[in-house]
Design a protein that fits this description.
The chain is about 60% helix and about 0% strand. Among the domains are: about 55 residues, no CATH class; about 45 residues, no CATH class. Helix 1 runs antiparallel to helix 2. It is mostly helical and about 475 residues long. The protein is elongated.
């Protein structure tokens, strides 16, 4: 190859000329093998550097340029050449979306999937990245790709390798940058495949046990608990069929049935504390959904542990529920987070599930103030006896009644230091309540006896003069 002085800082026409020359030589080499292995790898390395900025690097992103790179990346016998070309190709597909479509149109998708059979972390990372980017093509046929390339098996086998290293507590493997990168990328690929092609999610069920091992063995990142690889683990589980038969031993292992659930709860606790409100929607919502699905099939001993960890505790009930920094308080606070509507729905579903999908139990667990919004969204009636002091599952044995509206222990409530109402004020308040109850009944949401109407019938209130009558509230 004619040796040109390589300069990474070339711009404008000089850079365009250099890129054109390199691609011409590489394309020629595909037919004549006119480059030595060192020259070929040097040319690809230089092209990779030029391709990091798409300006004045147009030949890389053309159909001919993508084909040249794909042939070196997926057909060469040299590991170094393949990896150098894969890096160029991955950068091109990342920076210029049209390159993804070109790659798929050229028919190289199945060959990229085959690369996942290689027992090499860097090959795994690069093949996962290229395949992941190709899933954004408008014409890719994912069901065919999954069925005809053994992609699901390839991913399961690679995750099994990672899980094996994690189970051995191989710190070197767990912290090796390339292994962590490859693990992160292949779990992202798994999520994209099951998200974009949900009808094929069952093909990836074999990955679930490996993901659960990885979830339990990897350290939780700080200060952002759902950074890679933890976040991608949870996202990958989101679309998989956790309800499939035979997964009980993975979700609830005999030696520690609650270990996986406890790790998820720990992740939730740290995430609710660690992320600001505007980041919760995208980061924490999948975790809440996976916890809910795990709880739905948990044995009673694990269900009990999860309820104790996620529902208000005795300490929470010393004050009004939803205050403080406990996990349950943070969950209740996010029921009114305007920046996270999907998270709000996920938390509502989880709390309802933790309450046995029973409205009365939900009110007892989190108080009418929070439960009413959940029940309204689910179009469920409010329990008729919600006005009576109650005890929750966690506190029934202690016999401490709590305010059904606020969830606070009655004996912890501070007396309100206000003067006694006059008889006239009581009558005015009674009429206001009468109007409000009548309007509430008309909505059809509740069907309860208006206590003011009952009191009037019983003769406990006297009529007041028209001039003193309270007008209806707007």
């Amino acid at each position: 190859m004619d040796r040109l002085a390589f300069r990474a800082d070339l711009q404008g026409q000089a850079k365009l000329d250099a890129v054109t020359t390199l691609l011409d030589k590489l394309t020629e080499d595909l037919g004549k093998q006119c480059l030595t292995p060192d020259e070929r790898d040097t040319a690809l390395d230089q092209l990779k550097i030029y391709g990091r900025d798409p300006r004045n690097a147009d030949p890389i992103f053309t159909r001919d340029g993508i084909e040249t790179l794909a042939r070196f990346a997926l057909e060469s016998d040299s590991r170094t050449t393949c990896q150098n070309a894969l890096k160029c190709l991955a950068n091109a597909m990342l920076l210029v979306p049209s390159a993804r479509q070109t790659f798929v149109d050229l028919g190289y998708g199945p060959k990229a999937c085959d690369k996942l059979k290689n027992d090499d972390w860097e090959d795994e990372f690069l093949a996962s990245r290229v395949t992941l980017l190709s899933t954004y093509s408008k014409t890719i046929k994912l069901p065919t790709l999954i069925d005809e390339t053994g992609l699901a098996d390839n991913i399961a086998q690679r995750l099994a390798k990672h899980a094996e290293a994690a189970s051995k507590q191989d710190k070197e493997a767990l912290t090796d940058p390339m292994q962590v990168l490859s693990l992160t990328e292949i779990t992202r690929l798994l999520f994209n495949l099951t998200h974009l092609c949900h009808e094929k999610a069952s093909a990836f069920t074999a990955t679930i046990p490996h993901l659960l091992v990885l979830l339990s063995k990897h350290d939780i990142p700080t200060p952002s608990p759902l950074e890679a690889p933890m976040g991608p683990f949870i996202n990958a589980l989101l679309n998989l069929e956790l309800e499939s038969p035979g997964l009980e031993s993975s979700l609830f292992p005999d030696e520690a049935p609650g270990a996986i659930a406890a790790r998820m709860v720990e992740l939730l606790e740290q995430s609710l504390q660690g992320y600001p409100d505007h980041e919760l929607e995208a980061t924490v919502t999948p975790l809440v959904s996976v916890i809910h699905r795990t709880y739905a099939r948990a044995p009673e001993e694990v269900s009990r542990i999860m309820r104790r960890a996620l529902l208000p505790s005795e300490k929470d009930r010393e004050g009004v529920l939803g205050q403080g920094d406990s996990t349950s308080a943070k969950m209740l606070q996010n029921l009114s987070n305007p920046l996270a509507p999907t998270l709000r729905k996920a938390i509502s579903d989880l709390l309802f599930g933790l309450s046995g999908n029973d409205p009365a139990t939900l009110v007892k667990n989190i108080g009418y103030g929070f439960a009413s919004g959940i029940l309204f969204e689910k179009k469920l009636p409010i329990p008729e006896d919600m006005g009576n002091p109650s005890t929750s599952e966690a506190d029934a044995s202690r016999g401490r009644a709590f305010n059904p509206v606020t969830g606070q222990f009655v004996d912890s409530e501070k007396p309100v230091d206000e003067p006694e109402m006059t008889e006239e004020e009581k009558e005015r308040e009674a009429e206001r309540l009468f109007v409000l109850f009548e309007r509430l009944k008309k909505t059809g949401i509740v069907d309860v006896q208006n206590p003011v109407e009952q009191a009037l019938r019983d003769g406990r209130f006297a009529e007041i003069d028209d001039k003193d009558r309270v007008e209806e509230l707007d």
